[in-house]
Amino acid sequence: MLDLNLLKNFIAVARAGSISVAAAQAGRTQSALSMQMQRLADQVGQDLLQRTGAGVRLTAAGERMLAHAEQLIARHDDILADIGGGTPKGNVSLGCPEDYSIAFLPELLKGFCAIYSKVELRMVCAPTSELRPLLQRRQIDMALVSKSDPDHVSVLRKEDFVWVAATPDAGVSTNDIVTLALSAPSTLDHRAACDAMELNNRRYRIAFASNSLAGLIAIARSGHAISVLTRTAVPPDLHVVTRGLPTLPTIGIALEVADAHPSLTVELLGNHIRAVLPDLR
Length: 281
Known about the structure:
This protein is α/β, with parallel strands linked by helices. The chain has 10 helices and 11 strands.
């Protein structure tokens, strides 16, 4: 008989890509978790994990085992919730870009955790370009992602990109080379800023590029550069610059789920986000 605890820990290792990381998350020692993974491999008669320089990756048998394990654990949680008639239990991992986590997550999660106090949440903050591979590998259950098309059918909320700076008149002079602090080149805000500058023949240079929202805000506060944020994420001490700079596009925020047949707890969080996110202020 397969041990459900082994399966849960196997899912954690597969999602983390590292036995040490999964052990820290589960509050176990690395050696104990390694022994559990070997025990599971012995039970099924197949190697499930292959060690790499950066951690572990799934073998072909491990990929198949992960799909089965996720279905079994999800079904297990559904049965307990249905038969027990109490508060649903389970684990949900949610990814989102850092600016969304600051702007929306406190209100989103406060309401959800108050209702479903026994559901364990795990958060992953990363740009959309990094979240989608995690969804594809089922290393996270769901993610709030940015879409360049704000009118896409999956969009739950629209957000404007805005220029932010330490003073409201930064960038007003059309003769100056505009100094920018932007996220990494693969992000929508980076591409939107560069495209807007080039379309309007504005000269610019990128003095700081990082996916750290705190770093971008710090550079903007210093007055050294102008940055780009979603309007909701602009701190009260920074100014939205509207004069002298080209208009930036509006983007959409959508919720994407890794599994077409999610567990009850994943479905509950997804339904909560869909209901609450559009009206958050």
